Amino acid sequence: MSDQPSAERGGRLRSHIAWWLGTVSALIGIAAFFLTQCQSTAPSFDDWKTKANAVCEKEVPGIYHEMQGAADSLRALNERLESDPESVTQDDIDATAAEMREIDILTRNLVGSWRELEQPDERKKDLEKLYEAGVATSDASGALAQSIHDNDWKKVDGDATAGEKAQKDWSNQVKNLDLKQCNALFETL
């Protein structure tokens, strides 16, 4: 009879150990499942940067060309307004405004192309700053285009200054992320 209580205790002890082992095994299995299912499939930042640079290789030459053309048109329009304002027609003004509007569109398209890329998990805040700076540059170009079209020359000066500031900020974000193919856009800044 003295063996029976110790056998009973041993059985219960084995039962408790088996229960704990089963529980721990189940928890390990659940954790392993979640770890394998929750792993990010996002690209690395370097992979994203390679694709973003490829986008810039395609799009930046057109934007740069348009920026140069718009700057030349705006400069020429300004010179004509100062030297012979009567010779400037609304068509001349609208043509310059249309060039500025094109920068707005092309810039927004570039930012959209970057956003279409699968985003990395790392440096999300830096990427968002890049996108915001690009959108600010686009908005500034659009505002400048509207002011030119409206013949609001006092506003043109303020919009041009805001555009330069936005481009400088965007340039800094591009440099911060080391987007070498995009730097050509800011060579004249």
The amount of beta strand, in percent, is under 5%
**Number of spatially distinct domains:** 2
Can you give the mean pLDDT?
88
Helix content: over 70%
Q: Name the overall outline.
A: rod-shaped
Order of helices and strands: HHHHH
Cα radius of gyration in angstroms: 31 Å
The number of distinct helices, counting runs of at least 4 residues, comes to 5
Number of strands: 0
Low-confidence stretches: none
The termini sit apart by 97 Å
Q: How does this structure look, described?
A:
With 189 residues, this protein is mainly alpha-helical. The protein has two domains: 1-39; 45-186, no CATH class. Helix content is 80%, strand content 0%. The protein contains five helices and no strands. It has helices at residues 3-37, 45-83, 90-116, 124-149, 153-176. The longest helix has 39 residues, at 45-83. It is rod-shaped, with a radius of gyration of 31 Å.
Write the layout of secondary structure elements.
Blueprint lengths: L2 H35 L7 H39 L6 H27 L7 H26 L3 H24 L13
Helix pairs in contact: 2-3, 3-4, 4-5
Offer a few descriptive terms.
189 residues; mainly alpha; 2 domains; rod-shaped
What is this structure, in a nutshell?
80% of the residues lie in helices and 0% in strands.
